[in-house]
């Protein structure tokens, strides 16, 4: 009898190849079901509600009301501008803190500081808002500092102004910025930075051509998380913003809680959702473009500084003279 040829088993049996596929499907199925039930179907229901009027007729009058009203367009512009400013400031303040935490703090202290950063996540949002209210009200610590700097009067405060809303949103966005950018700073290998310095790169060049391309994806993640969280804020402007600090989020909340016109509230929500996605898409494209511009191309690569050229000395020949 001859032994079976091993060539017959090349490619594997169909049962073995189907096993990993079934395992992947089984692992993905619960998440897909939850995503469809609690994200996709409610979004479809919202879209349908936005195109239905009080008489249960399909119409676009809700969206026409949004774009024909200067009040809601101003609220939309204020919401997008404030959210963009809050996100940029949070990233600008969180990046140095995250870099120092990843590079210049001992591991034991680093764990303690990260634990302190997480505290706002386990604290009630209303508790944070009313605690911040005591800081910025007349006679509070922040009002006292502003008075000493002659920025406000003794009885003045920034409470119930857009500045109160802005500072509160920045405060709430800082933990997200620090945690996300900390992972980006920690992922940059010290050997890469040392190699760049060895090749003669200046600190600014190291940041723009080494650190920024490596951390750009996490910056986009941070921008998306912070911007989406801020653009939908409704408790902060309702408590701290005052008449001039209202945002589209608390306007939508008022429309839904009053039950005046659910279709119009849904139309406002969809307009805010689409414009937010457009802003995130534009920022993502810009960050990707700057990343390619800084890291790609032969002129942007790190090269060693040129060494000074020296002429090779020819050995002098000495001829022994005969005496």
UniProtKB/TrEMBL annotation:
Any one cellular-component term (Gene Ontology): plasma membrane
Residue numbers spanned by region Disordered: 293-323
Cellular compartments annotated: Cell membrane
Keywords: Cell membrane, Membrane, Transmembrane, Transmembrane helix, Transport
GO biological process, one term: transmembrane transport
Keyword Nucleotide-binding set for record: no
Coiled coil feature spans: none
PANTHER family in the record: INNER MEMBRANE ABC TRANSPORTER PERMEASE PROTEIN YDCU-RELATED, INNER MEMBRANE ABC TRANSPORTER PERMEASE PROTEIN YDCU-RELATED-RELATED
UniProt-recorded name of the protein: ABC transmembrane type-1 domain-containing protein
């Amino acid at each position: 009898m001859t032994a079976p040829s091993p060539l017959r088993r090349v490619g594997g049996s169909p049962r073995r190849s189907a096993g990993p596929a079934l395992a992947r499907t089984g692992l993905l199925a619960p998440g897909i079901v939850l995503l469809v039930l609690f994200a996709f179907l409610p979004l479809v229901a919202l879209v349908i509600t936005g195109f239905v009027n009080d008489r249960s007729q399909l119409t676009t009058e809700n969206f026409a009301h949004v774009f024909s009203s200067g009040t809601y367009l101003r609220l939309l512009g204020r919401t997008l501008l404030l959210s963009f400013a809050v996100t940029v400031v949070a990233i600008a303040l969180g990046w140095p803190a995250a870099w120092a935490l990843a590079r210049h703090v001992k591991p034991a202290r680093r764990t303690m500081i990260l634990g302190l950063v997480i505290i706002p996540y386990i604290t009630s949002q209303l508790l944070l808002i009313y605690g911040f209210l005591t800081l910025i009200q007349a006679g509070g610590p922040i009002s006292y500092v502003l008075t000493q700097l002659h920025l406000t009067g003794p009885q003045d405060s920034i409470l119930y102004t857009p500045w109160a809303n802005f500072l509160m949103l920045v405060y709430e966005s800082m933990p997200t910025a620090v945690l996300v950018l900390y992972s980006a700073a920690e992922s940059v290998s010290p050997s890469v930075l040392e190699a760049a310095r060895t090749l003669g790169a200046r600190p600014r060049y190291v940041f723009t051509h080494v650190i920024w391309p490596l951390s750009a994806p996490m910056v986009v993640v941070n921008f998306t998380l912070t911007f989406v969280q801020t653009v939908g804020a409704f408790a902060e402007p309702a408590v701290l913003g005052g008449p001039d600090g209202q945002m589209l989020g608390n306007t939508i909340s008022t429309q839904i809680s009053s039950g005046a016109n659910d279709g119009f509230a849904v139309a406002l929500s969809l307009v805010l959702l689409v414009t937010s996605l457009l802003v995130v898409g534009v920022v993502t494209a810009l960050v990707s473009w700057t990343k390619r511009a800084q890291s790609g191309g032969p002129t942007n690569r790190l090269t060693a500084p040129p060494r000074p050229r020296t002429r090779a000395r020819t050995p002098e020949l000495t001829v022994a003279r005969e005496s």
